[in-house]
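Whiteboard transcription, Tuesday session. T.W. wrote the structure tokens on the left side:
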């Protein structure tokens, strides 16, 4: 996004919400690189992934097509991260269905996520655990979505959530502990 700043993206999002088709095309151009980098980060840790970053971005973009009520750039990226998660989960489900319910393949997720020291987790198990986390504490779920799938920093998440960065840090620690426990990584330290 070398030629467009966060304010430009927010302006484009407002124009898109107003039905401006030209703004939608421009938005796609402006955020494509950032979305592709997010997709590459998500796929980098997956062993045997057959989905390419470009395909993940395009699938996620289609899921975003019905949304027009983005608050700003960070909110848009958070929702895009969630759309990518959904695409990845659907992709794994389709692959397993094609294998007629064969043995579950373990997936290596991004090393940057410290809540899984062993680094091995089944994507469908993670999706289920995140669903439980979201039902129990929606903020913790949003923090994981934005940080893990959206690649956002604590500062960016704090801006979206309209709270302090220390609140987000506490939420991230709590979410990691709950996910570690749920996914068999032992109890939280």
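and on the right, the sequence the group agreed on:
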């Amino acid at each position: 996004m070398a030629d467009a700043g966060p304010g430009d993206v927010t302006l484009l999002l407002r124009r898109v919400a107003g039905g401006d088709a030209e703004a939608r095309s421009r938005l796609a151009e402006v955020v494509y690189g950032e979305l592709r980098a997010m997709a590459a980060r998500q796929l980098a840790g997956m062993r045997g992934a057959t989905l390419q970053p470009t395909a993940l971005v395009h699938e996620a973009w289609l899921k975003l097509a019905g949304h027009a009520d983005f608050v700003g750039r960070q909110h848009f990226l958070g929702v895009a991260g969630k759309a990518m998660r959904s695409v990845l989960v659907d992709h794994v489900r389709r692959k397993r269905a094609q294998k007629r319910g064969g043995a579950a393949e373990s997936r290596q997720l991004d090393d940057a996520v410290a809540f899984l020291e062993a680094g091995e987790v089944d994507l469908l198990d993670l999706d289920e655990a995140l669903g439980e986390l979201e039902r129990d504490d929606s903020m913790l779920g949003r923090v994981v979505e934005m940080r893990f799938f959206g690649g956002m920093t604590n500062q960016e998440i704090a801006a979206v959530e309209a709270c302090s960065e220390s609140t987000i840090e506490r939420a991230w620690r709590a979410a990691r502990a709950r996910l570690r426990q749920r996914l068999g990584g032992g109890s939280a330290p």
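Someone added at the bottom: The first helix runs from residue 6 to 17.
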